[in-house]
Amino acid sequence: MVVLLANPTAARRPYRAPLASLFAVALLATSAGCAGGLDDPDRFTGGTGSACATSTTATGILQAQCFACHSTSSKEIGAGLDLEATGLPGRLYTTTSSSTCSSVPMANSADPANSLFLKKLTSNPGCGTRMPQGAALSDAETACLKEWLVNGKPSSP
Question: Is the Cβ–Cβ distance between 74 and 68 less than 8 Å?
């Protein structure tokens, strides 16, 4: 009796089918991409090229260091600056300081790196007191907030 196979060489190499399946699965897995989204971009800061330390975000620094006085839920918002409400950092470019600091914009669109918001984090802010009150931010935290403010500058019309 003679058995005719459609591909006689396939009968001699039974290992190819599982190997081909394994290759197809590996190719699919590596080309599928990231299933996540950018619903919370702050959680992606701190990677390569970022001034923020790993697992540190500007929002986290503000929450830990500033929200006690400058948040929507604080009893009296310090100097009228709410850092918790939506729209930061862009909103800092349209928010003015208290009269103590001559009512200048908190963020300078012409030179964001030299904004009052960032100067207030230094030992010599030029007006008023250093922020946050109590312990100063680390150099790394200040650099993270600087990057966040500069990157949040509204686009020119």
Answer: yes
Q: Cβ atoms within 10 A of the Cβ of 74, count?
A: 15
Is the pLDDT at 63 greater than 90, yes or no? yes
Task: List residues bridging with 135 in a β-sheet.
Answer: none
Helix ranges (H only) for the chain are: 8-12, 16-31, 58-65, 116-119, 139-151
- Average pLDDT rounded to a whole number, residues 141-146: 93
Q: Contact 97/103 with Cβ under 8 angstroms?
A: yes
Tell me the residue length of the chain.
157
Task: Provide the residue ranges of all domains of the chain, joining segments of one domain with +.
Answer: 43-151
3-state secondary structure of 148: helix
CA distance 32 to 40: 21
